Amino acid sequence: MQSTSNSNRPTGRRSSLKKRTVMFGLLAALFLFVVGCSKDGMSTWEAFGPVAQLQLDLFNVTMWLMVIVFFLVEGVLLYAIIRYRKRPGQPKPTQIHGNNTLEIVLTIVPTILVLGLGIWSVFILFEIDAPPEGSDPLHVNVTAHQWWFEFEYPDAGNGKKIITANEMRIPVDRPITLSLFSDDVIHSFWVPKLAGKLDMVPTHENKMWIQADSDKIDEDLPVTLFGQCAELCGIAHALMRFRVTVMEQADFDSWAAGYSEPPAITDKAKKGKQIFAANCTLCHTIDGPDDPALSASRLKGFLTGADITPVPAPNLTDLRTRQTLAAGLMDLTETNLRAWLHDPDGIKPGNYMAARAVLYQGGTVTLDEDQIDALIGYLLDLR
Ligand SMILES: [Cu+2]
């Protein structure tokens, strides 16, 4: 036993070294592939507003300084290792205590670097704390739910409240102040092109502001930016995305003015309206902002967690004006809406519509194809 393993050892070692080298190469390639995101999507390398720009500048300076330090230190290290390595027949080098000048330099330089970057970071923290004095910010309350985002504009159009989900619209060149909340666990608000991440914590309000500048966006408005929850928050965390559409103030105003105006409803949609009232209003509102008392009872239902209860759900009033379904998961099309109504859990495993609506408790949806057609007609007839 002993002798066999001994005689095998040299080749075994060599092949495992080879294997390790290959594994390392593969991992390095995977790493480069994974971090090689394009600028179009969720890139942090492109700033569309002043907050993101300040953060990006700080990041760039910090990173490049550290890259220089890394190559300097590693360079000197490698040079010393190779140049002064032990050679056969060489006498033992003279032993010295150290070098005071070198030690002082190696203490002072990093101290200056760390202090400098630290102080600059604090200045930037203050600078991005609030929008400039005298600007006219638009306020939005953002509440995270497992696994979607709710946007409330307390005073968007003539003091009228607007509640919508998963897609935030913002006017260009205007500061947007955000109050971030959560109704369940900790989530995180992240639109890389507008600002860094900020946690959304239950029972605690976090504030931030963002702005999209027309001179930083070289496309025609409206422009859609991507965001997503950046804090592991449960089974559908990776499917908790949202969008921010940057638009001209006038377009924003006309969207706001149209919100909750009763739509023209076709005959087919009339039937859909009844089906909606019977099956969906436990959780969804479709005719304006959610009634606060109703929201509170939905939240209570969710938190007490009995099997079939109301839960907070996306406000569907402006569903027709949206681009996506199920927290940015798929485009809003008739086919996708049909698929969602048939089997929400197949599309977004773990979501609370499938888990808590009576409709889905038998395994398949209890609506027939005609009823689903009517529902789709109704949902897409709203503006
Ligand atoms: Cu989340």
For the record, the CATH class of the largest domain is Mainly Beta
Q: How much of the polypeptide forms β-strand, as a percent range?
A: 15-25%
Q: Whole-number radius of gyration? A: 29 Å
The helix content is 40-55%
> Which architecture of the largest domain does the CATH hierarchy give at level 2?
Sandwich
Task: Compute the number of helices.
Answer: 10
What shape does the CA trace take?
elongated
Largest sheet: 5 strands, mixed
Structure ligands: copper (II) ion
pLDDT below 50 for ≥5 consecutive residues: which ranges?
Answer: 1-8
Overall average pLDDT: 89
Across the major sheet, the strand order is 3-2-1-5-8
CATH homolog superfamily of the largest domain: Cupredoxins -  blue copper proteins
What is the strand tally? 12
How would you characterize this protein structure?
With 383 residues, the protein is α+β, with helices and mostly antiparallel strands. It has 2 domains: 178 residues, Cupredoxins -  blue copper proteins (Immunoglobulin-like), CATH 2.60.40.420; 115 residues, Immunoglobulin-like. It is 43% helix and 18% strand. It contains 10 helices and 12 strands. The strands form 4 sheets. It has a 5-stranded mixed sheet with strand order 3-2-1-5-8. A hairpin with a 2-residue loop joins strand 1 and strand 2. Helix 5 crosses helix 10 and helix 7 crosses helix 10. The longest helix has 34 residues. The N and C termini lie far apart (79 Å). The N terminus is likely disordered. The site of copper (II) ion has 8 residues, from loops.
